[in-house]
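Before a colleague's protein record goes any further, I have to sign it off. My question to you is simply how this chain folds and whether the tokens agree. I do not need a full report, just your reasoning and any doubts. This is what I was given:
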Amino acid sequence: ALATGNTVNSSCTFSVGSPCAKQIHTLFGPASSTPPVLPVSGFVNYTFVNGTRPTDSLGNAAAAAPAVQFAADFTNQKVGVNIPSFTVNSNTWSASSSGGVAAPSIPVRNSLYFDGALNVTTSLPGATAGMVSGIFTGNHAPTPTPSANGSVPGVMMGYSLNAGGFGGTTVTGASVFKKP
């Protein structure tokens, strides 16, 4: 399941419906007592399932979740991400890992999770930086089947895109994918 919300402002007291809650992005999946099973070789383009509406540091949100692309190169244990253009508060944003989904470059760690830098393009001035992190869920064997707890082979990831550094604008979002 996917819950949408929208980074928490530390000066706020969080409660449902508060202005601070606009910046929280949360992904939920079934609990699992076993780690994911990843293949040792092959290349998979995952299917976008859903995502949160990217939200800037002022609480403004995009009209819809961008249809993010995600691929895994299991032979080299790397993943690739493309975040297509979206608009938040009249500012356009997009991002991708080096090589995008065609040539994944972000390392998979411990056969479980990944994190790495994104190249960011935005209409805002200033230096840009981006980060993505995520986790694999379920059994990704060549013929996957849902586990007993209903966990399907997939990926949950969050991203943060920045323009202008510490005093600039940051946009965050989250996406969910399933193995085709």
Q: What stands out?
A: DSSP finds no helices and twelve strands in the chain. The CA atoms of residues 30 and 150 lie 7 Å apart. Residues 1-19 have pLDDT under 50 and may be disordered. The first strand starts at residue 2 and ends at 3.
